[in-house]
Automatic annotation (TrEMBL):
InterPro entries in the record: ABC-2_transporter_component, ABC2_memb-like, Motility-assoc_ABC_perm_GldF
Cell compartment(s), UniProt: Cell membrane
Mode of membrane association: Multi-pass membrane protein
Keyword Membrane: yes
Protein name per its UniProtKB record: Gliding motility-associated ABC transporter permease subunit GldF
Keyword Nucleotidyltransferase: no
Positions of transmembrane segments: 12-35, 55-73, 94-118, 138-157, 164-181, 218-236
Key words, A-Z: Cell membrane, Membrane, Transmembrane, Transmembrane helix
Pfam assignment, any one: ABC2_membrane_5
Length: 241
């Protein structure tokens, strides 16, 4: 699995994909956090990074499917998927290596944003007057969100040989699990609305953004990742049916 991980990650670094993803993410977040007056931290007057944590999931909604769309679809289109699957590797090792490479690239985009936290920490009055617990929870939430989106993207890529279709399926899947359940809950009433909202990512992400690291939220994220990767494994096994 580590060999597959290294191969896939190096392939990303040797292609424009990694640099486009990093560039788009950092430019978009930088403009909204520091430049645009309606969302700028400097004009907002409060020492927090809520703008970043509200915006990042929507950027990931498109960038992560762009990363994952080639994982299996490209192998199928090039005819190398059979060669890969006949190697002395299990399906789990192949899926795990490709998935972790995609996730690692997505997490790499978050590292430069730590400069935003350092800047707000220094600019706040008094210095350090920022809710660090909420910030750590929000970063954890973004990392887990990226893990779910990457798993859905890999699954979408395993279902087709066309990268564009894989991208579109992944975007729709990520949107539905992030915002779809919240939208459905908004038209319901009573306890049913709460339980429906808990099926989506947004409710769990909001809890983590408050600095509340609840085991139920962690179990939710890991469960969705596990289900998506298991579905990917079934999609690859379908070649034998």
């Amino acid at each position: 699995m580590l060999t597959i991980l290294q191969k896939e990650f190096n392939a990303f670094l040797n292609s424009p994909v990694a640099y486009v993803v990093l560039g788009v993410f950092l430019i978009a977040t930088g403009l909204f956090v520091w430049v645009f007056p309606d969302s700028s931290v400097l004009d907002y007057g409060y020492a927090d990074l809520q703008t970043l944590f509200n915006l990042a999931p929507w950027i990931f909604l498109f960038l992560i499917p762009a990363i994952t769309m080639r994982t299996f679809a490209e192998e199928k289109k090039a005819g190398t998927i059979e060669l890969l699957l006949t190697r002395p590797l299990t399906d789990g090792q192949i899926i795990g290596g490709k998935y972790l490479a995609c996730l690692l690239l997505a997490l790499l985009a978050l590292i430069p944003t730590l400069l935003y936290y350092f800047s707000v920490y220094k600019l706040s009055s008094p210095e350090g007057n920022i809710d660090s617990a909420a910030t750590v929870g929000s970063y954890l939430g973004l990392a887990l969100l990226a893990a779910v989106f990457a798993a859905i993207g890999v699954l979408a890529s395993a279902l087709t040989r066309d990268q564009i279709i894989a991208f579109l399926v992944a975007v729709v899947g990520c949107f539905l699990i992030y915002s779809g359940f919240d939208s459905l809950a908004s038209v319901l009433q009573g306890s049913s609305a709460y339980y429906v909202s808990q099926l989506g990512i947004a409710a769990h992400y909001r809890d983590l953004s408050k600095g509340l690291v609840d085991s139920r939220d962690l179990v939710y994220f890991f469960s969705v990742v596990a289900v998506a990767l298991q579905a990917t494994r079934l999609a690859l096994r379908s070649r034998n049916w």
